[in-house]
Amino acid sequence: MVRAAVGLFGGRAYDGVSVDDLVSHLGVHRNSLYKTFGSKRGLYLAALRRHLADDVRPLADALAGAPDAATALRLVTSADLGLLVLAAVERAPVDEEAAAEVRAALDAVDRAIADALGAPADLAAALTAAALGMLVRGAPGSVGAALARRLDPSV
Amino acid sequence: MAQVRIDGDDLVVEIEGMNKLWAFKSRLTVPLANVRGATADPGIAADPKGIRAPGARVPGVITAGTFHLDGEKVFWDVRDPAKAVVVELADERYARLVLQVDDPRATVALVENALIR
């Protein structure tokens, strides 16, 4: 049920997901939704944490084995990060708990890239930021490849 | 219509206006430790509310008082479903409060922010 909430919250704005939407898409009674999660925000935070555990942690694990920047960029831009991106844009600025989750997840991605490429932390964070930007823009693979050529001239 | 405010470590709900005629109590004070969250939920008014006792329901006009649903006690004070906010409680007489407030978004933010601190 929390997994279904990941799909719902990852697909549209927080305010665009009503309790009616949650009740009908998750197949749960309104009463038990409130009893289990306390509020829509409580369910949202549970969904965000599930997304980070199910989708972002495996990405960080995969990044740890990336041989070059091109692979790292490709891994990030092809990952399912819908809820993370939306959370960073619309919830982190207004919700401290969501902000802390987003920060920790992005830090983990930065660290994995830094370790894999032997890159300084700042450069790894720049790569993560660039990759998320490409993801948001729906940039074609040639964009990441162009950046990677600058970073890995040997490739 | 209900006024919701934070007073120290308590959530204070004051029922005001003509609903006072119908609702059983005009003020509820709940320790924030027993408040689990708040949600704007216009759709809840369309759901079955359970059995009312005591309080009043004039269909289509006003829903106020204590309702019993699935073994839970729910306090209702809603005339305009568009402005309904659900406050979920723990270890209280009421499992939840369904309140009509002036600004649902502001009330939700007030309660949720008070819970983070």
Structure description:
The complex is a heterodimer of chains A (155) and B (117). With 155 residues, chain A is an all-alpha fold. Chain A has a single domain, classed as Tetracycline Repressor, domain 2, CATH 1.10.357.10. In chain A, 77% of the residues lie in helices and 0% in strands. The model of chain A has no long low-confidence stretch (mean pLDDT 94). Chain B is mainly beta and 117 residues long. In chain B, 11% of the residues lie in helices and 49% in strands. In chain B, strand 6 and strand 7 form a beta hairpin. Chain B starts with a strand and ends with a helix. Classes of the chains: A mainly alpha (155), B mainly beta (117).
Class by alpha and beta content of chain A: mainly alpha
Weakly predicted, low-confidence segments of chain A: none
The string of secondary-structure elements of chain B, in order, is EEEEEEEEEH
Main sheet makeup of chain A: none
Q: What percent of residues of chain B adopt helix (DSSP H or I)?
A: 10-25%
N-C termini distance of chain B: 27 Å
What is the CATH superfamily label of chain A?
Answer: Tetracycline Repressor, domain 2
Number of helices of chain A: 9
Average predicted local confidence, pLDDT of chain B: 86
**What is the CA-atom radius of gyration of chain A, in angstroms?**
17 Å
- Look up the CATH topology of chain A: Tetracycline Repressor, domain 2
